[in-house]
Design brief:
Layout (H helix, E strand, L loop, with lengths): L3 E10 L3 H19 L2 E7 L4 H7 L7 H6 L3 E6 L7 H7 L1 H7 L4 E7 L17 E7 L3 E9 L4 E6 L2 H18 L3 E6 L7 H13 L6 E6 H10 L6 E4 L1 H14 L7 E5 L7 E5 L16 H13 L3 H17 L13 H11 L1
Parallel strand pairs: 1-2, 1-3, 3-12, 5-10, 8-9, 8-10
Antiparallel strand pairs: 4-5, 4-11, 6-7, 11-12
Helix pairs in contact: 1-10, 1-12, 4-5, 6-7, 8-9, 10-11, 11-12
Bound molecules: nicotinamide-adenine-dinucleotide, 3-isopropylmalic acid (IPM) and manganese (II) ion.
């Protein structure tokens, strides 16, 4: 039997990043051993704020050349209180998303069995949406002016950039058998960029008459996510709106420790990057309090991306089985288990 070896670059990064990456690596390793048809070679890259303190850079100058040789990137988290966040994040995370044209940020918001939900009168099946966040331009384009008495932050929305991510959302809806794509925007106030976005959404939607196209203003969308989450199926939105709404999504689907994301270059010209939605959580680092489930879920997304959705489902089912059993939970889920205990429990459920 042929065995395909995947080379994965692991950037643990800062805070709890290395701790949760370690869990995801163990789960991927065991999944591969059980399957027999795939294998992993992991390379740990010590980039991040410690690297920055020593070198003045978040990653080496030839970082992109190094990363290009891998099939995927697993990223923990970036950010440390003694390094300015805009420096650390633009120097690594945002740099990779943009440099590798990972223009889709795919973030499932799904309430697994056994995961806590703060909403009342909500059925588990009601919280099951997939966010398709634009990930390469928009409000994160990094353009503007910073002066002593004035700052301008310019959002850049191109036809190509909007159209490809909106089309991705519709194609995903078709592929996954979803009935509706909701666009979240803010054309009433952002009278250039969001008017443009809305126009392109309507144009692309016309190519998919079988999928219901819905459009919400971002303020109303956040209200509906809490009041009526069942309304959302596939959601497509700009970079900043997607950032904010997926933390809200995490909150209704079990918390930051339960929320994963894939930064995809769908054409495969560059490696895609898989990471938890949460940050480096300096408040709990090094204490074995981090919930590894978000990063393990990101590992499951990696399997989907490698064309093995069966293994992706298997990993997600193992997470769900641990949650449902309720014996091992980190403190964010109301338990007192350690990161390593939850990881072991997931490995056993595999
Ligand atoms: P955060 O997500 O790191 O933490 C928010 C809260 O959630 C904290 O109370 C933290 O303890 C908790 N939390 C997060 N992940 C958890 C997990 N896996 N298990 C249990 N609890 C968890 O957000 P923040 O505090 O706003 O940011 C901290 C740093 O991380 C900043 O430097 C920020 O810029 C950076 N950040 C990085 C990323 C990334 O690398 N993808 C994402 C968000 C924030
Ligand atoms: C995320 C993070 C990043 C973002 C930050 C850390 C730059 O919050 O991945 O959601 O805003 O994209
Ligand atoms: Mn965020």
């Amino acid at each position: 039997m042929e065995c395909k070896n995947y080379r994965v670059a692991v950037i643990g990064g800062d805070g709890i990043g290395p701790e949760v990456c370690d869990a995801a690596k163990q789960v991927l390793q065991k999944t591969a051993e059980q399957d027999g048809r795939i294998a992993f070679t992991f390379t740990d890259l010590p980039w991040g704020c410690t690297w920055y303190k020593e070198s003045g850079r978040m990653m080496p100058e030839d970082g992109f050349d190094i990363l290009k040789g891998y099939d995927a990137i697993l990223l923990g988290a970036v950010g440390r209180p003694d390094v300015p966040d805009h420096v650390s994040l633009h120097g690594l995370l945002i740099a990779i998303r943009q440099g590798f044209d990972q223009y889709v940020n795919l973030r499932p918001v799904k309430l697994l069995k056994g995961a806590p939900c703060p909403l009342k009168d909500v059925k588990r099946e009601d919280v099951d949406m997939i966010f398709v966040r634009e990930n390469s331009e928009g409000e994160y384009a990094g353009k503007g002016i910073l002066e002593a008495d004035r700052a301008e932050q310019v959002g850049v929305f191109t036809r190509r950039g909007c159209e490809r991510v909106i089309r991705y959302a519709f194609e995903l809806a078709v592929k996954e058998g979803r009935r509706r794509v909701t666009s979240v925007s803010k054309g009433n106030a952002l009278n250039y960029s969001m008017v443009f976005w809305d126009k392109i959404f309507a144009q692309v939607a016309a190519d998919y008459p079988q999928i219901e196209a819905d459009s919400l203003l971002v303020d109303a969308a956040s209200m509906f996510m809490v009041r009526d989450p069942a309304r959302f199926d596939v959601v497509v939105c700009s970079n900043l709106f997607g950032d904010i709404l997926t933390d809200l999504g995490a909150a209704i689907a079990g918390g930051m420790g339960m929320s994963a994301g894939a930064n995809l270059n769908p054409e495969g010209r560059f490696p895609s990057m898989f990471e938890p939605v949460h940050g480096s959580a300096p408040d709990i680092m090094g204490q074995e309090k981090a919930n590894p489930m978000a990063t393990v879920w990101a590992a499951s997304q990696m399997m989907d991306c490698f064309g093995r959705p069966d293994l992706g489902k298997k990993i997600l089912a193992a997470i769900e089985a641990v949650l449902e059993e309720g014996k091992y939970r980190t403190p964010d889920l109301g338990g007192s288990s350690k990161t390593s205990e939850v990881t072991r429990a997931i490995l056993e459920k595999l």
